[in-house]
Write the C-alpha cells for this entry.
Amino acid sequence: MATAVTTKRTELGDARVRLEVEVEPDAVERELQTAARELGRDMKLAGFRKGKVPPPVVIQRVGRAAVLDEAVRRALPAWYEQAVSEAGVVAVGDPQLALEELPEKGSPLGFSVEVGVRPTARLGDLDALEVGRREPAVAGEEVDAEVDRLRESMASLETVDRAAAEGDFTVLDFEGRIDGEPFEGGEARGFLLELGSGRLVEGFEQQLVGASAGDEREVRVEFPDDYRAEALAGREAAFQVAVKEVKEKRLPGADDELAAEAGGFDTLGELRSQIESSLRERDEQAIEHEFREAVVDAAVARSDVDIPDDLAHAKAHEMWSQTARRLRSQGIEPGQYLQIVGKDEEELVHETEDDARTALGRESLLAAVVEAEGIETSDEEVIDALRAAAAAQGGDSAPSEKQLRRSLDQARRERRDEMLREDIAMRKAVDALVERAKPIPAERAQARDKLWTPESEAPAGEKQIWTPGS
C-alpha cells in the first residue's frame, strides 16, 4: 500500500519548487513498527528467541526516538518520491531537504524540499516542420572493410622459420623478477603474444622483434606509475624470455572460396551483395533514429523552453549517476573509469552540460506535446512494454499474461508505473511529430540553415537546428 502524504507546492522561479510535505500519523507508525521489527531481528534479549523480539519490546528497550529516527531515515526516500509525484513535477538533481522535529505518537511528520524541476515548454507552431533526412548509402569501401573483417576472423596462424616481425605471433615462456625476486603474475608458459598489439607493458613486445624460435632474451621494462597492480607501479622488472615459436597470420583470399566458407555463397559477388544489403538496412535504421531526433530538436527550436544553467548542471550530474550505475552493473568501478579517461567527476559533468541541456529540452517539449495532444497510455501498452522488457532480458520462459498483469497491479500500487507510462506517452508524442513533419533532403536543410536571415544575427549561443549529417 502506498504511503499517504499531502503536499503543498510553491514555485520559486528558475525551474525550482518548494514542497511542504506532511506524512500521516498512521504511515509514520507503520514505518516505526517496521523499523522495530528489523532491529529486533538482530537483538538478543532474555526470554525471547534471537530475531523474535516483538516491536513494542524493541521500542521500549531502544527508545521510541531512536527507532523513529531509523524509521524516518529508511522511509524518507519513498516519501520524497511520492511527494514529487503528488505535486505533479519531475524532479531534476538532488533535493535540499529540511526535516522538522520527529513527531510524538499520533502526530504527522513534516518536512520540506527544494529541488529543480523539468521546465514547462511553451509550444510553437509544430504543424509545418521541415527536417533534413538523408538517403541511405553504402560505399564500396564499407563493403571492402566488412570483407576484410571477415577475412581477419577466418585467419590462420602458421609456424614460420624466420625472425619475428611486427604483427607476427610468438609463443613464449617467461619469468619476471623485480630486484631479483619473482612477483605475482610475472610468469607464463606457452603464452601467445601478437607483437605490436600493446597487450603487455610498453617496451616488452618491441624487444622481441627480430627474435627467432629457440632464442632466449632478457627483456627489461618499467611499469607505468598508474599501473593497475599498485605493487608494480613505477618499478623496473627484468623478464627472462624463451621464444618457442614464431607464427604468421595468414588471411584467406577475397575470392569465391571465402564466400562459400563464410556463408555458403557461390561467388564473392553474392557475398558482397549480402553485405551491402545488411549495411543498407543498418543505415536505414540509423537514418530513422536520426530523423526522429531531428524532428524533436526542430520542435524544440520552434518552441520556448527556458533551461537555467544550474538546472543543466544538475541534469548532467544525474546523467553521470546513471552512467556510474551502468558501469557498476558491468563490474567497472566509476573511479577506475575516471582514471582511464583522465578526468575527475566534476570535469566530466561540466563537459556533458550541453547534452544535459539538450535532453531537458527534448523531455520538456515532449511532455508539453503529450499534454496538448491528450496522449494517454493504456494498460495494454504498459503490459506490451513489460513483455518486451522481459524478452530483452532473456530467460527460459516468457511471463504469462496473468504474471504481467500482476506486475502491473503491483507497480500501480507502488506508483512505479508512472515513469513507464510517461516513457510510452513520449514515444507516441514523437510518433505524432514525425507523422506531421515534412522530410527534405539533408543537403537542402543544411544549405537553408546557412542562409542569412534576421534571426541569424541573434546573440551568440543560439544554435541552429540540427540535421542529420550536419
Notes: Residues 5-117 form a domain with the Alpha-Beta Plaits fold (CATH 3.30.70.1050). Confidence is low (pLDDT under 50) at residues 453-470.
